[in-house]
Specification:
- By secondary structure, the protein is of the alpha/beta class.
- The protein has 6 helices and 5 strands.
- Mean pLDDT is 86; it is low at 1-14.
Length: 138
């Protein structure tokens, strides 16, 4: 039986959780990276859905922060493929597009949550409350 409790599913990579940021905007990745430094130092980044899928296979992040619109197949496609390969993966969609349609599509693709990019404090709160290995680096 697969344990679907997010508190027991995350993997520990050293002392910190590993987070993958998948966003085609280097500026958006930098902002997310800076915001996440209070949570972990183990952050990997990419700019496409295809690269996110490859990095998930190779790096096994505890959490994926996925943009919706990216070159190539995009974030929703990548979210579906990541979860097909690893049903216990944690994918959160973080997008500037905060319309109801995008929220619905993100959740239908299998993402566990959706956060608009202008609500990063809420995202950080969610991560620190949900993942036991979201350490605050010294």
């Amino acid at each position: 039986m697969i344990d679907m409790n997010p508190l027991s599913r995350s993997q520990v990579h050293g002392a910190f959780m590993r987070i993958l940021i998948a966003d085609d905007s280097a500026d958006a990745r930098r902002v997310l990276h800076d915001a996440l430094e209070d949570v972990t130092r183990d952050i990997i980044e990419c700019g496409s859905g295809e690269d996110a899928l490859r990095l998930c296979d190779a790096q096994h992040p505890d959490l994926v922060l996925m943009d919706i619109r990216m070159p190539g197949r995009g974030g929703l496609w990548a979210t579906q493929r990541i979860l097909e390969r690893n049903p216990t993966a944690h994918v959160i969609v973080v997008s500037q597009f905060d319309q109801r349609r995008y929220r619905r599509e993100a959740l239908e693709s299998g993402a566990e949550r959706f956060f608009p990019k202008d609500r990063l404090l809420d995202l950080i709160d969610y991560i620190t409350q949900t993942f036991p290995n979201a350490n605050i680096p010294n």
